[in-house]
Design a protein that fits this description.
The complex is a heterodimer of chains A (297) and B (448).
Chain A (H helix, E strand, L loop, with lengths): L4 H35 L1 E3 L8 E3 L3 H8 L1 H34 L4 H13 L2 H11 L6 H8 L15 H26 L3 H9 L4 H12 L1 H16 L3 H6 L11 H11 L3 H31 L2
Antiparallel strand pairs in A: 1-2
Helix pairs in contact in A: 1-13, 2-13, 3-7, 3-10, 4-7, 7-10, 10-13, 12-13
Chain B lengths: L1 H33 L12 E7 L7 H11 L3 E7 L4 H12 L7 E4 L2 H9 L7 H6 L4 H4 L15 E6 L1 E6 H6 L10 H11 L16 H9 L18 H15 L6 H6 L4 H6 L5 E5 L3 H4 L12 E4 L10 E2 L2 E8 L6 H13 L11 E2 L6 H9 L8 H9 L3 E2 L8 H16 L5 H19 L1
Parallel strand pairs in B: 1-2, 1-3, 8-11
Antiparallel strand pairs in B: 3-9, 4-9, 4-10, 5-6, 5-7
Classes of the chains: A mainly alpha (297), B alpha/beta (448).
C-alpha cells in the first residue's frame, strides 16, 4: 500500500484517539464482553480464569424461573411508573410558579434543587429516621393530625415501596424543575400576550401553550429519569435492603446480592443483562415515539 | 512541513503513552522484592510483610505492629485495613489473586469465607511452617479448636468470641433476681417476662442476625447445626428450630421484645438498646464491651452490666454459639512465609493482647482470663460486673463449629427471610419450616 497523505492523516487521527479508545476497550468494552460471557458459564472466581466452566443456558433458565427476578422487575416498573410522572408533574408546577413570582426566586430554586445534589446515601439515612414508625417525626405529625394508626412506612410490607418512591420523587423534583425552568425561558412572551387578548384564562394558557411547547424538555426528562429510576440501588439498600418480606427488592439490589453476598458472579451477570434488555427496550420505544412528538412542531 | 510535524508529534505521544503503560505493568514484579528500599526507617534488606485485617488500625492492630517492628528491625510488618463486608472481602480476594504487592498474612472472619478460601487454595498449609518457627499449635490454640483439612492446618484463630446475654443489673435487682450462671431457654424467657416493664423491653434480639432459634439449635447440636448426616438441611429434623422460632414469636406477641419489623427496619443495635435502657437484656457477643466503656456515646449511666452465659437447650451443658474467630491465614504466594509465620506465632502468643481492650479475647489457651477480664474492663469497673464476666470467660465451654459450609450464605438468608414472614404473621410455623427446608435443600443441592 502506498503511504499517501491521506493514510498518514488517518493514522495521526487514530493515534490521537488511541488513549481514549484503549481506556474504553480495557475498562468498559472488555468487562462488558466478559459479563456477557459469564452469562453462559459458571465462574468460581477465586480460581481465576481456570474457574470458568461452560454451562450453556443454565443461568438464563434459572433466571426465567426465579420468582425474585419477576418480583424485582415488578417493583422496578412500579417504581418508575409512579416516580417519574409524579416528579415531572410537580417539577412543572414548581417551575411555572417560580417563573412567575419574583420574590425569593433563586433561594427557592436552590432549596428545591438541593436534594438532587446531595448524597443519596446521606439522604436515605435521614429519611429512614423520618420514617421511623413509632418515634419518627412523620408519624408524630400524622398522629397530631388525629390519625390514630399511621402507616408503618419502612417497617410495613405495604408501605415500604411507596415510602421509597416518595423520597425519590422528592429528589427528582429539583432536577425536573431546573430543566423546565430553562425550557420556559425559551417560550416567547408574544404567545401569552396573544392568548391574553383572546381572553384565555391562566389554566387555558398553561394547557395550550406551556405544556405543548415544553414537550422536548419533557422528553429529555422522561428518558433520563426512567433510566436513572431503573437503576435504583443505594436508597433501597440503605433504607430497607429489599425488605420487609422482599417488598422493596429491585433488580440492581438483587444483582448485588447474587454477585457479592452469594458470590455467584455468573448469575449476577445474567440478571444484569436482563436489566440491560429492559432498559434498552424502554429506551427504544421512547426513541420511536419521539419522532411522533417532534412532528408536531 | 506542518503535516510532518503533526505526524512526528502524534507518534511521540503514542510512544510515550505505550512506555508509560508498560512501565505501569513492569513495575509490579520487582516491587515485591524491592519495596524494602523505600521503607525509610527500616534497613534496606529488611523483610516487608503486608498484614491485611478488618479491625481499624487505631483499635489495636497498629499498636501490635508497632511493638513488633520496634523489636524486629529485620522483619517489618505493615498493617492494611479492609472493611469486613462483602465488597471489602472481594477486594481482599482480588488482592490475593493478583501477583504483585500480595498480602502475606490476612484475617478471615466468617466460616463461609474461611472454607471458600481454603478450598480455592488461597491459604498455605501451616504445620511445617509452625514447626520451623518452634510454635506449638496444640499448646497455644488447641488442635480441638481447629478444622483440619487433608491432614493440614490452613489457618490459626487469633481470638475467641463468647456469645452472651448482657443484663442491666439495676433492672435485675429491681426484679429481685440474680445473674444466671447456667440456665435454659425457658428460664431465659421467664426472666425476660419478669424484667419487661413500660418503657423497657424484657429482651432484645439482633434483627440483623439469624433468629434466636439458631443459637438455641446450636446449644442442642454444636457441630454443623445446619447440616444433617445426609448432608441436607436440619430445619425439620432438629425440633429446636421450630421451638426457637415459636419462642421468639411468643415474646414478640407478648410485647416482651420489639415488634420484628420495627427492630429490623430501624436497624436497632444491641449497644443502643441496652445502654439507653430500652431493653433489659440483649443477646450479643463479648466484643460489645467496647461500647459499655464508651462514656461519650452513652453518658449518664448509673447501672452495671452483667454477663450471663448462653441459655441451654437442656440443663447441664454449656455450649456457646460464639467460637474461634479472626482466622489468620498465610498467602501461598507470599515470598516470606517463614517471616510471616514468625510474626503470626508471636501474635498468637502475646501480640494480640493489645486487642483485648477493644473487646477481642485472645484464642490462646495460655492466656490468663483474670488478666484478660482486667484488660477488658480497664478503668470502667463502675459499668461492668466483673464477677459475672470472669465466670463467663473462665467456665468450661463447648464452642459451636462449622466443618462444612455448603451454601451457608443462602441458608442464612432463607432463614432470616422465612422467619421474618413468620414473625410478621404472613405464614404459619408449619409453612415456615416447610419452605425453609425446601429452600435450604435446594441451595445445598445446587452448590454440590
Amino acid at each position: 500500500m502506498k503511504w499517501t497523505e491521506k493514510n498518514r492523516e488517518n493514522l495521526a487521527g487514530y493515534l490521537f484517539i488511541m488513549p481514549s479508545v484503549l481506556g474504553f476497550a480495557f475498562f468498559i468494552l472488555l468487562p462488558l464482553l466478559f459479563s456477557l460471557a459469564l452469562v453462559f458459564t459458571e465462574w468460581d472466581y477465586l480460581r481465576g480464569l481456570d474457574g470458568l466452566s461452560f454451562s450453556g443456558l443454565a443461568n438464563l433458565r434459572e433466571a426465567l424461573q426465579d420468582e425474585l427476578v419477576y418480583k424485582s422487575l415488578k417493583n422496578n416498573v412500579l417504581f418508575s411508573v409512579v416516580s417519574v410522572p409524579a416528579a415531572m408533574l410537580i417539577g412543572l408546577v414548581f417551575a411555572t410558579a417560580l417563573n412567575k413570582f419574583v420574590y425569593l426566586k433563586s433561594l427557592l430554586r436552590t432549596l428545591i434543587f438541593l436534594p438532587y445534589m446531595s448524597s443519596l446515601v446521606a439522604i436515605s439515612v435521614v429519611w429512614r429516621v423520618l420514617y421511623h414508625s413509632s418515634e419518627g417525626p412523620i408519624n408524630a405529625f400524622l398522629r397530631a393530625l388525629g390519625l390514630a394508626d399511621p402507616p408503618g412506612w419502612l417497617a410495613s410490607p405495604d408501605w415500604a415501596l411507596p415510602a421509597i418512591i416518595i423520597m425519590t420523587v422528592w429528589t427528582y423534583i429539583g432536577y425536573a424543575m431546573v430543566l423546565y425552568l430553562a425550557g420556559l425561558q425559551g417560550i416567547s412572551r408574544d404567545l401569552y400576550e396573544a392568548a391574553d387578548i383572546d381572553g384565555a384564562t391562566g389554566l387555558q394558557r398553561f394547557r395550550a401553550i406551556t405544556v405543548p411547547l415544553l414537550k422536548p424538555t419533557s422528553f429529555l426528562i422522561a428518558i433520563t429519569l426512567i433510566i436513572a429510576s431503573f437503576q435504583v440501588f443505594a436508597s433501597v439498600q440503605v433504607m430497607t435492603d429489599g425488605g420487609p418480606m422482599q417488598s422493596t427488592t429491585v433488580l440492581a439490589l438483587y444483582i448485588y446480592r447474587q454477585a457479592f453476598e452469594f458470590r455467584d458472579m455468573s448469575y449476577g451477570a445474567t440478571i444484569s443483562w436482563v436489566l440491560f434488555l429492559v432498559i434498552f427496550v424502554v429506551t427504544m420505544i421512547q426513541w420511536r415515539t419521539q419522532k411522533k412528538w417532534q412532528n408536531q412542531f | 512541513m506542518k503535516k510532518k510535524a503533526l505526524y512526528t508529534m502524534s507518534l511521540l505521544l503514542a510512544v510515550t503513552l505505550l512506555a508509560a503503560a508498560c512501565g505501569g505493568n513492569g513495575e509490579g514484579h520487582p516491587a515485591s522484592e524491592g519495596n524494602g528500599g523505600e521503607g525509610g526507617s527500616a534497613s534496606a534488606d529488611a523483610v516487608q510483610l503486608r498484614f491485611w485485617g478488618g479491625v481499624p488500625p487505631e483499635s489495636g492492630p497498629q499498636a501490635v505492629v508497632d511493638t513488633w517492628n520496634a523489636a524486629h528491625p529485620d522483619i517489618q510488618v505493615e498493617y492494611i485495613r479492609f472493611v469486613n463486608d462483602e465488597s471489602g472481602n472481594t477486594k481482599l480476594d482480588t488482592a490475593l489473586l493478583s501477583s504483585n504487592d500480595v498480602p502475606d498474612l490476612y484475617v478471615t472472619y466468617s466460616d463461609a469465607n474461611l472454607n471458600r478460601r481454603i478450598d480455592a487454595g488461597m491459604s498455605a498449609p501451616l504445620d511445617e511452617l509452625a514447626a520451623g518457627a518452634d510454635f506449638d499449635i496444640d499448646a497455644v490454640v488447641g488442635k480441638d479448636n481447629l478444622n483440619v483439612k487433608d491432614d493440614s492446618i490452613y489457618y490459626l484463630p487469633a481470638t475467641k468470641t463468647y456469645q452472651t446475654m448482657l443484663i442491666n443489673m439495676s433492672a435485675l435487682e429491681a426484679a429481685g433476681a440474680d445473674v444466671p450462671r447456667a440456665w435454659t431457654w425457658d428460664e431465659f424467657a421467664e426472666l425476660a417476662r419478669t424484667l419487661n416493664q413500660p418503657g423497657q423491653y424484657g429482651a432484645y434480639f439482633n434483627p440483623g442476625w439469624e433468629p434466636i432459634a439458631y443459637d438455641m439449635s446450636i446449644t442442642a447440636d454444636p457441630v454443623d447445626v445446619y447440616y444433617g448426616e445426609d448432608g441436607m438441611s436440619t430445619f425439620r429434623s432438629l425440633p429446636s428450630f421450630r421451638e426457637g422460632l415459636e419462642l421468639q414469636k411468643a415474646l414478640i406477641d407478648e410485647q416482651v421484645t420489639y415488634p420484628f419489623a420495627e427492630a429490623n427496619m430501624n436497624k436497632l443495635q444491641p449497644q443502643d438498646e441496652l445502654l439507653n435502657e430500652k431493653a433489659a437484656m440483649v443477646f450479643t457477643g463479648t466484643y460489645l464491651i467496647r461500647y459499655i466503656k464508651d462514656e461519650q456515646a452513652y453518658p449518664n449511666r448509673d447501672f452495671q452490666v452483667a454477663f450471663a452465659p448462653v441459655p441451654q437447650y437442656e440443663a447441664g451443658t454449656n455450649v456457646n454459639s460464639g467460637g474461634m474467630g479472626d482466622y489468620i491465614m498465610i498467602n501461598p504466594k507470599s515470598e516470606n512465609k517463614e517471616a510471616a509465620m514468625a510474626f503470626l506465632a508471636w501474635y498468637l502468643e502475646e501480640g494480640n493482647m493489645e486487642l483485648v481492650a477493644g473487646g477481642r479475647v485472645p484464642s490462646s489457651k495460655q492466656a490468663d482470663m483474670g488478666e484478660v477480664a482486667d484488660l477488658l474492663i480497664g478503668d470502667y469497673a463502675k459499668y461492668i460486673d466483673k464477677e459475672s464476666l470472669t465466670h463467663l470467660l473462665a467456665a468450661d465451654v463447648t464452642f459451636k463449629q462449622f466443618t462444612q459450609t455448603t451454601a451457608q450464605s443462602e441458608i442464612q438468608k432463607a432463614f432470616k427471610e422465612e422467619a421474618e414472614k413468620y414473625f410478621m404473621d404472613a405464614q404459619s410455623i408449619d409453612e415456615t419450616i416447610d419452605s425453609l427446608t425446601q429452600r435450604a435443600d435446594e441451595a445445598i443441592a445446587a452448590a454440590k
